[in-house]
């Protein structure tokens, strides 16, 4: 971790991009911390670097789960799914997020020293100081959460451990050799930073305040500091959503397993945000395809996102089938396809009318939106993955053709074209960090665990939320949800809805771990042989030895106080 310190002065690059003016030359033309400590733009540049490393929906970690296979033999998630995960090799590690923690702590050190003047006008200066400090505390909490999610685990004695929590900037020769906190102590430390941030941040960045703490503040001053120009930065609304995510994670079976009040905390924070959009009635009708246009990306479905980029085709080149000039990288599994219910909401089994020789008929409409099925039109062509499918056929071309009989649609812009002559027609994309649908699903899961399917939290229950999500998808009438009467049955339905709604957004890899569900379900495929569909029961075997991931080996060698998770 000491090596991270040397990167601190890279802030010059980031500050140069966001500052209105440039640095004045000083000794050797290399600004030092004395300069940064007194220059508002430079100080804010340090904070802005903490916005790097945010986890978006384009990780495609599903290739290490029962939802997908990656057809690239060197893909890291493929390798760890097949048993290569070690303390030396872990592409899912997030230990490097401590780098952002150090940026934040340096910024807080500068702010707390009181040398930065954000504005010569006292009220404006105080508002800037509060907001920026609030952002820093929230980002410190978030980056610690990322590390906790990836590296919490049990030691050799069976004690559930969290991670070291750093609240101060540490010089290169300082002490990084500190023990891990208990899991719950880590959660509480993250919660405290989130709560402290809430005291300082506006609920939203807008042209008029909605918080009582801004009563009496001149509207022009408020807009200068907390106006809509900041609306992609972390806000009070986002912090409450992140608190709900953290609390649900903590309460899950692999961790505190319902001990404490974490399900209640998750439900309360999720509901407090969701009631501001009208509760269940505020569910975005276009939320299932939030990624397909500028309007959808900008809609209420995106609770927190990055900026919308220019036209590009990067993801489509990776994921499109080979006949439309893609590499077909992510192949959804037949396991995932069978998670989609029938049109009336009943599970896709033969007793409910599922026909294995006409497998995509009368199914949940989300299936066709998220997966390229045999015979689909996509990317400017018709995609056949069975016999006679040419280069799109299963296993036709190594590392380009599907290995499962399916290609990915979700997150891809359907109007992108990758032409054979090398020209491309791209579309905008954006990193989405948190969607309202996830928050609804957090509330549903927490409320069900507290009191069952019909337990109400601010007028919302697991049943009302899941019903609304499935109706939005086109499952209507839902002949299945009325049969759900127990907490256990609703739990399975909620987990299945998370699997579908949040698919390929980087959640499944972590959900299986927190639920304590087997990570080793073999990936299956489905192939049309010219006459019949045939299930391929063993496309790729999974080999994870623990639901908990290791601390990086290099860190435990450097710092003997840093205890490794059991088995690594």
Describe the structure.
There is one protein chain. The chain has a domain at 1-54 and 94-201: Serine Threonine Protein Phosphatase 5, Tetratricopeptide repeat (Alpha Horseshoe). It has 19 helices and 14 strands. It has helices at 11-18, 33-36, 40-48, 76-84, 98-113, 122-151, 183-200, 219-226, 236-251, 262-274, 294-298, 314-319, 334-337, 366-370, 436-451, 462-473, 487-501, 508-515, 553-558; strands at 68-70, 153-154, 160-161, 302-305, 330-332, 371-372, 376-378, 381-383, 407-408, 417-418, 424-425, 432-435, 523-528, 533-540. It has a two-stranded antiparallel ribbon. Helix 3 packs antiparallel against helix 5, helix 15 packs antiparallel against helix 16 (462-473) and helix 16 (462-473) packs parallel to helix 17. It is globular and about 75 Å long. The relative contact order is 0.13.
Topology:
Layout: H1 11-18, H2 33-36, H3 40-48, E1 68-70, H4 76-84, H5 98-113, H6 122-151, E2 153-154, E3 160-161, H7 183-200, H8 219-226, H9 236-251, H10 262-274, H11 294-298, E4 302-305, H12 314-319, E5 330-332, H13 334-337, H14 366-370, E6 371-372, E7 376-378, E8 381-383, E9 407-408, E10 417-418, E11 424-425, E12 432-435, H15 436-451, H16 462-473, H17 487-501, H18 508-515, E13 523-528, E14 533-540, H19 553-558
Antiparallel strand pairs: 1-5, 2-3, 4-12, 6-9, 7-8, 10-11, 13-14
Helix pairs in contact: 1-3, 3-5, 5-6, 6-7, 6-8, 6-9, 7-9, 9-10, 9-15, 10-15, 15-16, 15-17, 16-17
């Amino acid at each position: 971790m000491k090596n991270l310190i040397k990167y601190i002065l890279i802030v010059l690059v980031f500050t140069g991009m966001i500052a209105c003016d440039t640095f004045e030359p000083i000794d050797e033309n290399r600004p030092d911390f004395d300069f940064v400590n007194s220059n508002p733009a430079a100080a804010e540049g340090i904070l802005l670097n903490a916005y790097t490393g945010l986890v978006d929906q384009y990780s495609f970690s599903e290739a290490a789960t029962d939802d997908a296979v990656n057809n690239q033999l060197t893909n890291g998630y493929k390798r760890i799914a097949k048993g290569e995960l070690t303390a030396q090799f872990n592409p899912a590690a997030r230990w490097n997020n401590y780098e952002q923690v150090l940026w934040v702590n340096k910024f807080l050190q500068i702010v707390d020293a009181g040398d930065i003047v954000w504005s010569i006008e006292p009220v404006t200066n105080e508002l800037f100081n509060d907001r920026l400090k609030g952002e820093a505390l929230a980002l410190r909490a978030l980056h610690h959460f990322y590390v906790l999610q990836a590296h919490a685990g049990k030691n050799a004695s069976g004690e559930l451990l969290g991670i070291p929590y750093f609240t101060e900037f540490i010089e290169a020769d300082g002490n990084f050799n500190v023990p891990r906190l208990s899991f719950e102590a880590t959660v509480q430390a993250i919660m405290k930073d989130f709560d402290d941030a809430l005291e300082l941040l506006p609920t939203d960045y807008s042209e008029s305040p909605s918080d009582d703490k801004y009563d009496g503040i001149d509207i022009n001053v408020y807009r200068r500091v907390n106006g809509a120009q900041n609306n992609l930065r972390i806000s009070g609304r986002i912090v409450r959503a992140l608190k709900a995510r953290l609390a649900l994670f903590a309460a899950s079976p692999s961790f505190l397993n319902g001990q404490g009040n974490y399900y209640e905390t998750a439900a309360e924070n999720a509901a407090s945000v969701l009631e501001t959009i009208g509760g269940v009635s505020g569910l975005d009708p276009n939320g299932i395809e939030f990624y397909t246009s500028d309007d959808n990306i900008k809609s209420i479905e995106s609770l927190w996102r990055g900026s919308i980029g220019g036209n590009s085709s990067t993801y489509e080149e990776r994921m499109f089938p080979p006949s439309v000039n893609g590499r077909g990288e992510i192949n959804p599994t037949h396991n995932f396809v069978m998670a989609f219910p029938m049109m009336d909401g009943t599970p896709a089994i033969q007793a409910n009318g599922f026909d294995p020789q006409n497998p995509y008929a009368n199914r949940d409409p989300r299936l066709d939106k998220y997966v390229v099925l045999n015979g689909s039109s996509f990317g400017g062509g018709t995609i056949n993955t069975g016999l006679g499918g040419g280069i799109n056929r299963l296993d036709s071309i190594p590392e380009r053709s599907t290995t499962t009989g399916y290609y990915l649609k979700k997150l891809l812009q359907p109007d992108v074209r990758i032409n054979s002559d090398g020209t491309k027609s791209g579309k905008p994309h954006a990193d989405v960090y948190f969607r309202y649908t996830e928050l609804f699903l957090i509330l549903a899961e927490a409320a069900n665990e507290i009191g069952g399917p019909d337990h109400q939290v601010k007028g919302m229950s697991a049943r009302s939320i899941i019903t609304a999500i499935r109706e939005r998808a086109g499952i209507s009438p839902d002949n299945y949800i009325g049969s759900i009467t127990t907490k256990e049955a609703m739990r399975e339905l909620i987990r299945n809805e998370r699997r579908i709604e949040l698919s390929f957004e980087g959640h499944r890899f972590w959900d299986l771990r927190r639920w304590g569900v087997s990570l080793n379900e073999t990936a299956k495929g489905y192939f049309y042989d010219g006459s019949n569909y045939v299930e391929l029961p063993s496309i790729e075997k999974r080999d994870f030895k623990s639901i908990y991931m290791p601390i990086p080996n290099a860190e435990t060698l450097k710092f003997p106080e840093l205890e490794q998770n059991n088995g690594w």
